[in-house]
Amino acid sequence: MSHPSPVSLQGVVTLHVNGEGAQVGAALHDTLLTVLRDRLQLTAAKRGCNQGVCGACTVSVDGMPMRACLSLAHNCESVEVRTLEGLLDCPHLQALQAAFASSGAFQCGFCTPGMLVSARSLLQRDPDPDERAIRSALSGNLCRCTGYVKIVQAVQAAARSLLPEGAAS
Amino acid sequence: MTTLQGLYRPKTVDEATALLAQDAEAKPLAGGATLVAMLNARVIEPAALVSLADIDEIKGITVQDDGRVRIGAFTRHRETAACTLPLGSAAVVAHAASQIANATVRNMGTIGGSISFADPGLDYPPALVAAGAVIEIASVQGRRTLPAAEFFVDWYLTALEPGELVTAVLLPAADRGAGVYIKHARVAGDYATASVAACLHADARMSVAVGACGPTPLADPEADALLSTDRSDAAIARAAQWLVARADPLDDVRGSADYRLLLIPRLLLRAVRAVETAHRSAA
Fold first, then answer.
1. How far is the CA of B70 from the CAs of A129, B15, B112, B261, in angstroms?
2. Does A34 contact B at CB distance below 8 Å?
3. Cα separation of B143 and B167, whole Å?
4. What is the CATH topology of the domain spanning B6-51?
5. Closest approach of chain B CAs to the CA of A51, in angstroms?
6. Most exposed of A81, A100, B108, B185 (fewest Cβ within 10 Å)?
7. Which residues of chain B make contact with A66, given a CB cutoff of 8 A?
8. Pair (A141, A97) in one structural domain
9. Mutation choice for A interface testing from B43, B51, B104, B105 by most A CBs within 10 A
10. A51 and B11: CB-CB below 8 Å?
11. 169 residues of chain A, pLDDT tens digit each
């Protein structure tokens, strides 16, 4: 039986990031987060714990929030990656940005990009989430400053701003 | 520096097991939720990884010809939690999946990866034992199956031999029963401090298993037999003491061993009442 050969021993990986193909050098152990930040200079996703716990590195993979620190870059050649930088034209994201700013939903801001990616995914699935749904959707994103109250309020405000007039529950 | 020399992306189980047989140092990589975290922390330094991401035959949930529900090893927790097939008492497995970590990690982690890691605080092991699930395992020698209760062997140790790979979890054919997973954790998304999986089968038989209170899930045939005929508070308390007698918990950051022993009767009572309620509302 012939064995499939190891991928990319020459250390180049082809990724699809924010709608564009990118060929970048990456060691086999480099995570998607390392390649995004250190090779592609896409620094919205943050390296917090590098253990999949804090959620600061959350990016969209094939339309779903995932941890960039828990994916090996070489294992991401067949998926579509969107970082916060690649979501700036999304109306859900714009509404969230406006609501985070007007609600004061951050202090140091380190968790904010991950919060926004997770919250955007929630609003796409559920345009009118209650507090429980918001807290559940954001439970993988740690914030050590705010206590979450204003973040939850901001997501509620963003959802309301996107709903048709009079449709809010 | 990591010693990672190779990353393979086989398309079939046969290719994957051939690679694992050929390179004893190679580790299978599923969703990455645990293995990549361990790589990042340099807790493990495998020479090669065999990524299972391209193997379609181990993805998704289907009903087999014999009625059993087959959860492919590469099925993400999100899909298992959202399973719309009727599961009956094996719904305990979907209920457990819905309580693993958080939504983002549930988008990544897989059932095969989770049970192969075999951390006693995981949510699947007690649910699979209570449900009477069977683990399907492949190697170059072929396939074999093991009851979940025999798959989990010790702290972080399964019955997997070198070169073997979990390919599926098989749940019993759906009955008209109900299954519930009750988890006590410090915060939502943490590993369980203690947990109880309870299945109430169509014939009124009960099966329960306790998680995070020993190296492997605790189950007790006498406790199941008693709860199958008597679910008074007193009977539940007696059954809980038999489970406590089998417990071998550790002190850790999530709770002391003594605290875990206190939790078993409380969680068992909640789980039995919850599964009775679920069974009534399903009827």
1. 33, 21, 12, 34
2. no
3. 9
4. 3.30.43
5. 5
6. B185
7. 104, 107-108
8. yes
9. B104
10. no
11. 455 656 655 689 999 999 999 999 999 999 999 999 999 999 999 999 999 999 999 999 999 999 999 999 999 999 999 999 999 999 999 999 999 999 999 999 999 999 999 999 999 999 999 999 999 999 999 999 999 999 999 999 999 999 987 665 5
